[in-house]
Amino acid sequence: MDFLARAAELDAADPLAAHRNAFLDPGPASLVAYFDGNSLGRPLQATVDRLSAFVREEWGGRLIRGWDERWLDLPLTLGDRIGAAALGAAPGQTVVADSTTVLLYKLARAAVDAAVLSSGGTRDEIVLDTDNFPTDRYILEGIAGERGLTLRWVEVDTAEGVTPDLVADAVSERTALAVFSHVAYRSGWLADGPQITRIVHDAGALVLWDLCHSVGSVPVELDAWDVDLAVGCTYKYLNGGPGSPALAYVAARHQAALQQPIWGWLGRRDAFTMGPGYEAADGIRGFLSGTPPILGMVALETYADLLESVGIDAIRAKSLALTDFALEFIDAELAPLGVSVTSPRDHASRGGHVTVKRAGFREVTAALWEQGVIPDYRDPDAIRIGLAPLSTSFAEVATGLAALRDAVRGAGAGDSDGVGGPDLGDGSADAVGSPVTGLTP
Questions:
Q1: Annotated active-site residue in 133, 137, 174, 358
Q2: Is 278 a catalytic site residue?
Q3: Is 325 an active-site residue?
Q4: In the annotation, is 210 catalytic?
Q5: Residue 42 catalytic?
């Protein structure tokens, strides 16, 4: 198959194609294909403009008055926007603050403390899986150590992920909290959120979902699924920028009973009295701690505008089309070279990225980065192809995967040192940094 011609057809028919022009273009000398949108999303041109305006007008113009006029409420108002657009969450349940690690600690610690107290100490286990993201595992190991709890590990296939049957076998009357990733960071396995939530609830426990690889890519319905708690980052598919603040969801029914453990001034009732003692603010505000990272939230607001305009269902449809096309290329061009797919092929079980595996991929990744083709590497021997739907074209997928194919073959097309551009299968080879027909990174 001429994959570049096929990509051109798909780009021409893509209803979201015009949105690629909204992203900052670093130029072909810097970027040929970006396959790391599941680690760090690309900035919008509007983000550049909005941050500049914010520095001049809000920060520089309003100075300290900005806190009273808008900034103090931004964690809640922005949380509500993301909750409505991407999480299926009614207002008053989502907040933007801190980092994913800090929010995960807050919510998990609050949940296990409440469960242990209400059960008289009989609920003394945290259920988690062996392939969950390292931060999740480390945080829960720390909480278990602090509170004298036991970790109940769910052994999972790293090419797949957590399934309802595995969860049903792990939870019991001793479970205080279960914590899973909705989309597995290695394989892209998409867990059955509603069914797993029901299974945990049937055992009398709470569930906390890590949405880092879901939010902004895969539709999530936290209210409809009856989820208790969730956390997620905003620098991947929400394009908030490096280290942008995370988000937390706490179902309204739990907000009065759960007390988060990091008592900062901004989470206190009537924070500006600066009085003695701590009394948590009502509602989701009580899950705040310190001063909000406003600059990161301003960047995040820009992408929230685009997300609301396009809609998460349209984004998911483009995501699946991109990963389907990537799988076509991999099966035809990379599988004969010993590259295997370790991601689900079924739409119902696949998130927003595809993972491929072959010995030597660490070195291959380094070579691709030198060419301006940017996937990411994960031990052991795996490359993730993370395709951000609004900023990625089908031509970009074809070009980048052709570069991967050529690197696996051991040399770039037309270059003895392996640094040349990929052979696109149309009788030509593009040098590093040269424009590729139909490619809008």
A1: 133
A2: no
A3: no
A4: yes
A5: no
